[in-house]
What does this fold into?
Amino acid sequence: MIADTARVSERIREMLSNIDGNVIIEGHFAVDVVPPEYIDVVFVLRRDPEELKRVLMSRSYKESKVMENVAAEILDVCLYDAVSRCGASKVCEVNVTSRDTNDVVQEILDVFNGVRERRIGIVDWLGKLESEGKLDEYLKEL
It folds into this structure.
């Protein structure tokens, strides 16, 4: 199925215009369907590609879907999309690799509440895999 992002975006705009307060919208397409003027902050959750591959395989995802997601993670696709759509000042990357959910939630709350600064550019999976001699292994699978 192909999502009609324009239609979803218009419906979200209607819903948000009637809400007073904060709303959390989660998902890969969130930056594509939420009008930028309604966005205060975008959290892009990042995970080491090797760990991501293991997690998705354990969930019985098809290998093609696993590799699509791993490639997107290596190439910073979600981060790029968020920054392109909303601007760097509204984006915060959070590395969730090997972290407890409560710890990740606390970091997000700290950023949202101004206790921590928003940061981008905190991971370089492409560089990491290359320095470990593993990049060719991932590129072959793509």
About this structure: The two ends are 23 Å apart (CA to CA). The first strand starts at residue 42 and ends at 46. The mean pLDDT is 93. The chain has one domain: 40-141.
